[in-house]
Amino acid sequence: MNPEPTELAAALARFDQLWSPRIVTTVNDYDVRIAKVAGEHVWHAHDHTDEFFLVLDGELRIALRDGTDGAEREVVLPRGAVFVVPRGVEHRPSAPDGASILMFEPSGTSSVGERHDEVPGHVDATTGHRL
Amino acid sequence: MNPEPTELAAALARFDQLWSPRIVTTVNDYDVRIAKVAGEHVWHAHDHTDEFFLVLDGELRIALRDGTDGAEREVVLPRGAVFVVPRGVEHRPSAPDGASILMFEPSGTSSVGERHDEVPGHVDATTGHRL
Q1: DSSP characters over A79-97
Q2: In B, which residues are within 8 Å of A1 by CB distance?
Q3: From the CA of A125, how many Å to the nearest CA of chain B?
Q4: Pairwise CA distance, residues A124 & A17, whole Å
Q5: So what's the ipTM on this one?
């Protein structure tokens, strides 16, 4: 826990890697993570936790298989929008034009969940890196 | 949990009361709350949880008694800055020129903690209201 405030814009300027979350701070046993994203992540699900998204810059899309019989839909988050993916729901974030996002989830949560499609090379399967 | 994204600017436009947090969404057993603030809150402490702040607009100040023998200091959070007040630390948020903030904390957490000075009339002692 940092004894001084962290400016998110400065924190984002400290790394370039896409789909590779950095842990900005912790709240009890939860992480606050930030990531730069562009293109598509991978279909995955977190079986034991909800996952919170806040868009800091750009536009994030999240495809969800939460319909009857797993029917797909997509939600669109402009800058300043928040959304929670409920535990167990298969989802795939994407950002055709790039985005910066903030996430809130229990420490140790994998970026690709417990169930996922084959992880492509551009996606970092991680529990978050130090900033 | 809302099945659609929530734009924080629109959510903030739905209420005017100061120091009266609204619950935007939940993440497991945590709330994501937003509040409009101006002037001073009250000195208080949360004995059982850390408290996360993100400044959405304006500037937030947080006075802290976290020094040796409870010595006071103040941190200043511009727009886009985050800070975590560790559990047990007496603190008093303020915003001389007004601010909008987002908080993460366990559902049921009181806005004035377990220990607090006398709560002034302009501060809402609440576990958060529905948006």
Answers
A1: TTEEEEEPTT--EEEEEEE
A2: 50, 84, 86
A3: 22
A4: 9
A5: 0.95
